[in-house]
Inverse folding.
């Protein structure tokens, strides 16, 4: 049988079958590289349990990694939705890193500025997001408490995954968009057979017949250890017109002579803060 993973917790998964049945499943073997959103082949082992035999080919895989381990976020997604807020303060670098991960997988990206009802904080948040808007990234402003439906047109017809730091109002947004989300989470926890599994690594919800939304836990960092220097350079979309034009093939875009990226920064064609973020990510000093 085929199905789609709609929830993950450790080595336990809930797989939704074609008829809407939800079946708790375990992977074969000790290693598990299964993500929420994966399409999988399963075999029933009983009326209320199954085993995942294989992962079907993916269209995309969003994950983060450091020197030690990698953390799968979601598979087969079309759009990454990064939730930030007017308060508490959000991390510009986390937004940058999430965008780079999306670019590397050719996933569309959307930034949601939440808590826009806090009007005294709005101008500062807009200013910080302006650099991303100038690069062509879409920014939607809303208040999840009152205007979450403003986001629905951006989610229609695709599978989106929400990411964001804790405190940005992501859960409020999910509950507003998916009123039955808490009930669905309780049902999944029951399927996984205990209250200790109330927080899954990621959960997929159906917004309508054409649209899915994957919620992921709040995060405070977004490692890009799985991307090499060339991949990171290419993921900075504003770098692309200049890549390959430096004097030296292995140019680190630091203090090398005739570096076209450095020249573009000096000319105001590349944002200096984005260029500084690139060097922080690469671990190089300017």
């Amino acid at each position: 049988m085929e199905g789609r993973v709609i929830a993950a917790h450790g080595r336990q998964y809930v797989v939704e079958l074609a008829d809407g049945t939800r079946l708790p499943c375990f992977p074969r073997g000790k290693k598990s590289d299964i993500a929420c959103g994966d399409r999988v082949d399963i075999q029933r082992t009983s009326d209320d349990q199954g085993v995942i035999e294989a992962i079907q080919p993916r269209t995309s895989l969003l994950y983060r990694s450091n020197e030690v381990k990698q953390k799968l976020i979601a598979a087969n997604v079309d759009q990454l939705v990064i939730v930030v807020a007017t308060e508490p303060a959000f991390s510009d670098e986390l937004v940058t890193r999430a965008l780079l991960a999306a670019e590397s997988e050719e996933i569309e990206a959307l930034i949601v500025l939440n808590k826009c009802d806090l009007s005294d904080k709005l101008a500062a948040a807009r200013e910080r997001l302006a650099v991303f808007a100038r690069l062509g990234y879409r920014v939607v402003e809303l208040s999840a408490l009152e205007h979450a439906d403003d986001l629905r047109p951006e989610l229609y017809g695709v599978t989106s995954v929400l990411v964001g730091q804790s405190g940005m109002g992501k859960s409020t947004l999910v509950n507003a968009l998916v009123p039955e989300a808490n009930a669905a989470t309780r049902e999944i926890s029951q399927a996984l057979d205990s209250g200790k599994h109330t927080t899954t690594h990621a959960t997929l919800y159906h917004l309508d017949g054409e649209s899915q939304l994957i919620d992921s836990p709040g995060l405070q960092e977004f490692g890009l250890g799985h991307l090499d220097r060339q991949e990171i350079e290419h993921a900075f979309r504003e770098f692309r017109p200049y890549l390959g034009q430096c004097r030296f093939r292995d140019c680190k875009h630091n203090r090398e002579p005739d570096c076209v990226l450095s020249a573009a920064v000096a000319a105001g064609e590349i944002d200096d803060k984005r260029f500084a973020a690139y060097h922080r990510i690469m671990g190089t000093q300017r």
Summary: DSSP finds nine helices and 13 strands in the chain. The radius of gyration is 20 Å. The mean pLDDT is 91. Residues 11 and 32 are 7 Å apart (CA to CA).
